[in-house]
Amino acid sequence: RILSLCDPDNCDANVALHEGTLPPGATLLAIGKTAEDFGEALKEQKPNVVFVSPSCPKARVQLPALLQKFPTVEWVHAQSAGIDFLVCDELSATTPVMTNAKGQFSSSLAEYAMLACSYFAKGIPQLIRQKGAKSWTKFDVQELRGQTMGIVGYGDVGRAVAKLAKQYGMKIVALRRNPRRDTDEEKLCDVVYGNDKASLNRLMSESDYIVCSAPSTVDTKGMVNADAFAS
Fold this sequence. Notes:
By secondary structure, the protein is α/β, with parallel strands linked by helices. 32% of the residues lie in helices and 16% in strands. It has helices at residues 15-19, 59-69, 89-92, 106-121, 124-133, 156-167, 197-206, 226-230, and strands at 2-5, 28-32, 49-52, 75-78, 97-99, 148-152, 171-175, 191-193, 209-212.
């Protein structure tokens, strides 16, 4: 018995939930972007699941209000890997189980990261300019092989990037809270540093390309600052 908390006019990611065929026993009760959009009559149906999307305006305000209005909710699922759009003191005091979409976008984000590296290494901006000018002057390009990829935040996205970068022959330097190399995925890294400021600056100075895949939290906000770039 699902409530979908999102902006119905700006939520393409919810097409399957809103218009598709749900698993047996699952029912979408209502869609709204504020707690007030969900009528009192819904209480009789005892909704027990909330899907919340980043498209919901002021979700960190609306979700606690929705949970207070419907105490039967047992599970809240964030339809994104990041949950910074939800974090608030009111929500931390609630009891429902909370999950997120960790890993859902890792592969596509890793592919984008490699595309971005190739964009600069292969001189795509110059190719675009030459196309516009109908001029095909030869120019040198760089290889990604042998270059160093710095990964700030070696979580699911960071590991996906490392897998692809390793196939390109790149050296991998990672920054994470626990600087170990025990598992096969961790051994993709040539070097793993802790998440202190000195280690971040060292990673920045050693890397040719940098992917920042750390979660957006109070601790990570502003961590890649002017000092890091200056190093």
